[in-house]
Specification:
alpha/beta; Enolase-like, domain 1; 5-stranded parallel β-sheet; 13 helices; about 30% helix
Length: about 475
């Protein structure tokens, strides 16, 4: 165990994005900080099981698909074919780089990392217990809980069976998969459906709702559904599971509708559970909900004012980017009035399907229900020179703006590099009116040819609808 002070200004539990954001914000503003991590390496679920490995795998699959779709390569007999274990080696390399880099953040700032499972002894004292039974007690004036979440496991589903996986274990598949059923069509389910289909694996995507990702703009969701089906993904809406039958050669998902879906593996991607169990929260007056999520107010405070919670352990939006800023925000609240400007909690959605989706602001449905007079501007990527050059012509950029003030109300993008493209619009939407205006894109000169030019095309398309 590291040498510890008698008490710290801020004690952070968890080294994922939320914990890192809180620790760095506090230490940079002169507060003493200690951090507790249950695993041997820092980074949290984001680094070791979630965002980093899955997105690394996705990129490797995308590169493989690009090679196989290239006409010039095909003419010379050049193709690429990899199994998941081959691709996983690349993910391991990236994870190691991330862990090394993030460890230096704590070392450089003299933040002690205490390893072990954390449990509150009282509202100002936490005990960390390592696997070998060794214990370390840490006292703090304030706490930030950033313990993340894990896939939800219905008790009747045997996740120890070698053919049944969740989103943390699916990348550990060590055999050739020809078919997969994914139960749950949220962000994780849709992302993995895209990835596995790009590996030419047969995919059943089972959705319990009427539409995919119904929190997104309907036009964007329709485009995703069309593209997934065009690639060969079988999407089954309004279905609920009855039971899961594990076999030696696969798994059978029995649905309440009477359907039976047998595939090589089953990926359960329906829901997540906050990692709040074992923290001793009930004893200090904090009551997580039925899914383990810790309730917080608008300042990330729990029911105990000096204890904050951030990231996936508080529930949606459950994004790494959101967690980091929530951590910084919680630390800012702890710091008080003399601290740096408050970090923004307006977070764009980034969904790494193939192609990507990114969204910010209001949808058409929300604006219509609020009776806000808006107009729409489109730029279809098939008309953008850069997209034609790269061959990535699937997708569009969609701008929603106020008919009278021209204020930007929402930006929605579906296509290659959508999660990068969105930030141009985000920068303008963050400005106060009249600087937050459609006219910025109309009057700005964009490099040509670039994907950024889509903003000018969409802005002119929308502006011309006004007359």
């Amino acid at each position: 165990m590291p040498e510890l002070a008698s008490e710290y200004d801020v004690v952070v539990i968890g080294t994922g994005p939320g914990g890192e954001g809180a620790a760095m914000q506090a230490i940079k503003n002169g507060r003493s900080v200690a951090i507790i991590e249950r695993e041997a390496a820092v980074g949290g679920n984001c680094t070791h099981h979630g965002t980093i490995p899955s997105k690394t795998l996705r990129h490797a699959i995308f590169q493989m698909a690009e090679v196989n779709s290239n006409v010039l390569f095909r003419e010379h007999g050049i193709t690429a074919s990899f199994l998941i274990p081959d691709l996983r080696r690349r993910a391991k390399s990236v994870i190691e780089q991330q862990v090394k880099m993030r460890t230096t953040f704590y070392d450089r700032n003299d933040i002690p990392i205490v390893h072990g499972d954390a449990k509150f002894l009282d509202s100002h004292t936490v005990e960390a217990v390592e696997a070998d039974g060794s214990r370390c007690v840490v006292r703090g004036k304030s706490f930030v809980i950033a313990t993340g979440a894990r896939p939800y496991h219905p008790p009747e589903v045997d996740f120890n069976h070698p053919r049944i996986f969740d989103s943390d274990s699916i990348l550990n598949v060590d055999f050739h998969v020809k078919s997969i059923t994914i139960y749950g069509a949220g962000i994780i389910g849709c992302e993995y459906a895209s990835m596995f289909r790009n590996l030419e694996i047969k995919v059943n995507l089972v959705n319990t709702r009427d539409r995919l990702l119904d929190f997104l703009d309907e036009e964007i969701v329709d485009a995703l559904s069309y593209h997934l089906r065009e690639r060969g993904v079988i999407i089954r809406h309004r279905e609920e599971y009855d039971r899961v039958e594990a076999c030696d050669d696969g798994a059978i998902l029995h649905l309440k509708s009477g359907k039976q879906l047998k595939t090589d593996v089953l990926l359960w991607a329906a829901g997540r559970t906050g990692n709040s169990d074992g923290l001793g929260l009930e004893a200090i007056g904090i009551q997580p909900d039925s899914r383990g999520n810790i309730p917080v107010n608008e300042h990330m405070q729990t029911s105990v004012p000096h204890i904050y919670a951030v990231g996936d352990v508080i529930g949606p939006p459950a994004l790494a980017s959101a967690a980091y800023n929530q951590g910084r925000y919680a630390a800012t609240m702890i710091l008080g009035e003399e601290s740096a400007p408050t970090p923004s909690l307006v977070i764009p959605t980034g969904i790494y399907t193939s192609p990507e989706i990114s969204s910010l602001g209001k949808t058409e449905r929300e604006l219509t229900e609020a009776r806000i007079p808006y107009e729409v501007g489109h730029a279809h990527f098939k008309s953008i020179a850069r997209a034609q050059i790269t061959g990535q012509t699937v997708g569009m950029l969609k701008i929603l703006f106020h008919r009278e003030t021209l204020e930007l109300l929402g930006i929605h993008c579906f296509g290659a590099n959508a999660s990068e493209i969105i930030h141009i619009g985000q920068a303008i939407m963050a400005q106060p009116v009249p600087h937050n205006s459609l006219m910025y894109f109309i009057n700005t000169t964009f490099n040509y040819p670039t994907m950024a030019e889509a903003y000018r095309v969409a802005a002119l398309n929308g502006y011309n609808r006004l007359f």
